[in-house]
Design goal:
This protein has helices spanning about 20-30, 40-50, 80-90, 125-145, 150-155, 165-170, 220-240, 245-260, 340, 355-365, 370-385, and strands at about 55-60, 65-70, 75, 95, 100-110, 110-120, 175-180, 185-190, 200-205, 210-215, 265-270, 275-285, 290, 295, 325, 330-335, 395-400. It is of the alpha+beta class. A hairpin with a 2-residue loop joins strand 4 (about 95) and strand 5 (about 100-110). Helix 6 (about 165-170) packs parallel to helix 7 (about 220-240). It starts with 19 loop residues before the first helix and ends in a 5-residue tail after the last strand.
Length: about 400
């Protein structure tokens, strides 16, 4: 790695001038460019900014490979490459290459890691470094915009065939990571191509973070349909201005009406990112865990058992109990499905709750970002089971980190 200074007012050399008209043309072109045209567009933008070339790499669904949009190139590993280092740390990486340098710039949309941008240049100074960062911001926004309607982009980030239940559920899933200056929420879900009943959701409504984790009865398309009904009901209520009790009530009613033969366990949380006040409802699911000062604080998020979602008639709960606590700065809340802790190795030994929480605490203490913590954790779980999970495994981690005013 080559250390590169990036002063706030780096002086521009004689070759630093930019043809603003050409740059404007490229920005206008970017609005209507088709997704498969992005590699060529990135190259033209790089040239217009005084750089030699640009390559776009997107991370695959399981965050193990960085896959080039140029179909003639080979993927790069996330765990042992300069490109992967930039992705994992969300920091630029500069390496020498063929008489020049390559700047590996992370592609990030908000808090969501998308991949990396490789920028080649004969020489690097503060101006070119700043322009590299600008290009990475631009193409992160373009990719985020265009992947909502591009099957080609979706296909590029897959390494095997997606099963129908997984395809259906993934259409409902939000980005892996959302967040702001006050809080961040991140999640992973495996088996990536065969999920059926597990799901997660997180959304920001002004200064409120809503999170949800679900585990539907069964492991087939019917389970996925039940989970989809729950997610749609929760979003309908949330987007209509509903608070936590309204959301839970809408979920119960919708699942009982549309999938009366199915039930679903889950936890719904509401975090006020201004005050740290956390409300939650647990419907037949493993209780959330609170991690504070690198320790699990047992019992804080436990609550009396409540029935799963979707029970109707005499089995329906009279009223859901909403619980409340106040987080402290830096607190982490962990939601998970039982497939995580019940994962077994070849000798039948469970991954277990202690190993699960210890992994998160140690990784966080080592300075890993929440999204990277969960990426490493789910890889450890998969390696333990040799990539053959017996049950869906979903983890959602959110933390409250208000900034000083």
């Amino acid at each position: 790695m080559i250390p590169v200074s990036d002063p706030p007012h780096a002086s521009a050399g004689p070759d630093a001038a930019v043809d603003e008209s050409r740059l404007e043309e490229l920005l206008i072109e970017a609005q209507t460019a088709l997704p498969f045209e992005l590699p060529a567009l990135a190259n033209r933008c790089a040239t217009a900014l005084g750089l030699d070339s640009a390559l776009i790499y997107l991370v695959d669904l399981q965050q193990r490979q960085l896959i080039p949009l140029d179909e003639e190139l080979e993927p790069l590993p996330v765990d042992c490459s300069s490109a992967g280092w930039a992705y994992r740390t969300v920091s630029p990486r500069v390496v020498e290459s063929d008489g020049g340098v390559i700047v590996w710039m992370p592609l990030v949309d908000g808090a969501e890691r998308l991949g990396v941008l490789a920028l080649r240049t004969a020489a690097l100074d503060g101006v070119r470094m700043r322009r590299s960062r600008m290009l990475a911001h631009l193409f992160a926004m373009l990719i985020t915009s265009k992947r909502t309607y591009s099957d080609w982009l979706a296909a590029r980030t897959r390494t095997t065939t997606m099963r129908l239940p997984a395809e259906m559920l993934r259409a409902f899933l939000p980005p892996h990571t959302v967040g702001s200056r006050r809080c961040v929420s991140t999640a992973v879900l495996e088996p990536a191509y065969k999920i059926a009943g597990d799901a997660f959701d997180h959304s920001v409504v002004k200064n409120v973070l809503h999170t949800m984790i679900l585990d539907s009865m069964g492991h087939d398309l019917a389970a996925g349909l039940a989970t989809s009904v729950v997610m749609a009901a929760a979003r309908t209520s949330r987007r209509g201005g509903g608070d936590l009790p309204d959301i839970v009530n809408r979920v119960d009613q919708s699942l009982a009406r549309w999938r009366p033969d199915h039930f679903c366990t889950g936890v719904l949380c509401r975090l006020d990112a201004e005050t740290g006040v956390l409300n939650w409802v647990n419907c037949g699911h493993p209780p959330p865990l609170l991690i504070r000062a690198e320790q699990v604080v047992h019992g804080v998020l436990d609550s009396p058992p409540q029935p799963p979602f979707g029970l109707a008639g005499p089995l329906a709960p009279a009223a859901r109990q909403v619980h409340e606590t106040t987080l402290k700065r830096g607190d982490q809340v962990l939601l998970y499905t039982d497939g995580v802790i019940e994962a077994r190795d070849a000798n039948g030994v469970e991954f277990g709750l202690s190993r699960f929480t210890d992994f998160i605490i140690r990784s966080s203490a080592a300075g890993q970002r929440p999204a990277e913590v969960l990426r490493l954790l789910i890889d450890a779980i998969l390696d333990r089971q040799r990539n053959q999970l017996r049950d869906d495994a979903t983890i959602l981690l959110f933390e409250w980190r208000p900034q000083d005013r």
